[in-house]
Amino acid sequence: MTTVSSPKPEPLAGVSRLFAGLKRSYSLIQALGVLAVLIVAMQIANDRFLSPINVGNLLGQMTIMLIVAAGMTIVMIAGELDVSVGSVVGLSAAVAGWIMVRWIPAPSANDHSWWVIVLGLVAPLFVGPVLGLFVGFIVTKARIPSFIVTLGMLMIARSLTLVVTQGQPIPDIPQIVRSFGQGRWVQIPLPIAFSDFFRTSSFSDLLVWFPIQNIVWVAAIVYAVGWFVLDRTAFGKRVYAVGSNRTVAILSGIRADRIKIQCLMIVGFTASLAGVVSVSRLGAVSPNTGEGLEFEVIAAVVIGGTGLYGGQGKILRTIIGVIIIALTRNFLNLARIAIFWQGFATGAIILAAVLLEALQRRISERR
Amino acid sequence: MFGAAGRETSGRILVEGVPVPARDPAASLKSGIALLTNDRLGEGILQSFTLIENICLPILSRFSGARGVLDFAEMKRTTEKNIQRLRVNAPGPSALARQLSGGNQQKVLFAKWLETKPKIFVMDEPTIGVDVGAKEEIRRIIDEIASAGVGVVLVTTELDELVLLCDRVLVMFRGAVIGELSGEAVNRERILHAAACGEIQAAAA
Questions:
Q1: 3-class DSSP state for residue B161?
Q2: Tens of pLDDT along A336-348?
C-alpha cells in the first residue's frame, strides 16, 4: 500500500480496477461471509431458526439496538464514545410513559387526547440531545474523555429513570401508540422458507411475503438518513476528519469541538428515539429499560468495522455487526443455553472481532 | 492558527490592515492566511483520506448547497486541476494519500492551501522530508505562488532555500529578531553572520 503507483498504460486496467475494488471492500465481504456462515450454521443446528416466528422476534429485538448503534457509529467515527446510551433509552422511555400515563391520566388506554400523545412521543426525543449537549460541553471544554463523562451520565440518567418511574413499571400505554409499535402494516418478500429448503431440499416458495414490524422501518429510515449525512454532506466529511486527526481538522478551519458536541447530541437523539420505539413496542415502560444496552451496541459497532480510535467506519456495516450480536443471542436462546453463558459468548465474539481488526491493521502497516 | 497549539504571545496579525483574531484557525483562514505546518504526518496529510478529501477539506462549504449536500463531481474536478497544475504523481484523484510519496503528499498539501485562495501563505519547512527532485519542484511551486501575488512567509532552517527564494530574511533567535537582510544582502555569508553575531544589518546593501 505504500508503493507509488504511477499512471502507466495498463492493458488489464479493467481487471486491476476490479481487483482494487475487491480489495477495498475486502472487510465488507469478510463481514458478510461471517454473517452467511453464522446463519447457515444456526439454521443447520436448529431448524426453527429461520422460521417466520423466529425471524419476526429477531427483527423486533434487534430494532432498539439498531437505532442506537447508528448514532454510536457516528460518535465513534468522531473519535468519542458514549456509554450512557442504555440509560438515556431508559430515561426517554420513562419520560414518554410518564407524560402519557401518569402526568395526564386518561380514563382508559383508548381515551387520550391527541395532544397528550403527540407530546408524549415528541418531548422525550429532546432528552438525549439535551444530555448530549451537556456531555459535549464537558468533553470539549474541560478536555475530559467522553468515556468518563458518559459513565457519569450513565448513572445519572438511570437514577433519573428510577425517579420518573418511581421504580415501578408504567403499563397502559395508549392503544394507538401500541398499535403502531406492535403492528406489521407492510409486507415484503423474504427468503424465510429456507427452513423448508433444509427439510425438503426444494426451492418452492422460497420467498414468503413477510409482514415487517413497523418499528423496523423506523430503523431503516435512521440508517438511510445516517448514511446520507455521513457520506454525502460536508458535515459527514468533517466528522471523519475530526475523528482521524483533530489538529489537521482544526487547522483546516473545522470547528472540531462543535462537531463533537453535535455528534454526542446525535447519539443522544438516537437513544431517545429508541426509547420511544421501545415504549410503543412493549406497550409499557420498565424502570430498567435499556440496561446494559450500551456495551452490546458498542460491540456491534466495533464488529461492524468501525475503529475504536476514530476516523474510520461505515454506518451501513454497523447493521451487520448488530445482526451478528443479535443472532448469537437469539441462537443461544433457541438452543436453550443457560442465560449465564450468553454474556460469555457475546464477550468472546467481541474479543475475536477486536483481535481480528488489530491483526489486520498490523499486517497492513507492515506492508 | 498562530498560537493554536502554543500559549498566547505578543504582537498581532493584520491582513490588508484588518486584524485577525488570534488562536482561531477558522477565522485566520477566512481572512486569507494559509498555514503549512512542518509536521506533514502529524498535522498535515490525512493518510486514510483520498486526495479529493484532503484538498477540499478547508473549502467543503464551497461544494455544498443550501442543504449541505456535497457536489462530488465539482470536488473531483478541482482536485484533478490541482494534480495537473502541481504535477502530483498519483494514480488519480480518488487515491488514498498514503499511496503517495512524501514529496507528492507535500504537493497535495500545497494544493489544499492554495485552493483556500490565501493572501498570505505561511510555510514552515516546506521541503522537509522530501527527496531532492521533489524539493526542486516544490521550490519552483513556491516561486510561482509568490509571483502570483501571494505573500509568502517562509520559515526554514535550510540556508539554500532562503537564498534561492527570499527577498527579505529575518534571522530569529529565541523568539526575537536578531538580524534583517534584504536584496543583495541575502546570501549565505550574511545570513550565517547574522545568525552567529546577531547584529542588526541595515536594510538594502
A1: helix
A2: 777 788 788 878 8
| Subunit contact A233:B68, Cβ cutoff 8 A | yes
Residue A1 lies in a domain: no
Give the residue from B60, B64, B105, B131 with the most A CB atoms within 10 Å of its CB, the best one to mutate: B60
Contact call for B58 and A252, based on CB within 8 A:
yes
Domain B25-156 is in which class? alpha beta
What's the whole-number average pLDDT of chain A?
A: 85
* Cβ neighbours of B91 in A, within 8 Å: 5-7
Helix or strand run (H / E) with residue A201: none
Complex prediction ipTM = 0.88
Residue A194 located in a structural domain: yes
For residue A246, the distance in angstroms to the closest alpha carbon of chain B comes to: 9
Per-domain residue ranges for chain B?
Answer: 25-156, 167-205
First to last CA, chain A: 6
> Does the distance separating the beta carbons of B58 and A4 come in below 8 Å?
no
Confirm or reject contact between A232 and chain B (CB < 8 A).
Answer: yes
Q: What is the pLDDT of residues B71-108, one digit of tens each?
A: 999 999 999 999 999 999 999 999 999 999 999 999 99
**Domain limits at A191?**
29-358
User: Diameter of chain B by CA atoms?
Assistant: 59
Q: Residues with Cβ < 8 Å from B161, sequence gap 6 or more?
A: B127, B139, B154
Domains identified in chain A, total number:
1
Can you give the CATH number for the domain in which A102 is found? 1.10.3470
- Residues B4, A250: C-beta atoms closer than 8 Å: yes
φ, ψ for residue A299, nearest 5 deg = -60, -45
- Nearest CB to A251 within list B43, B56, B68: B43
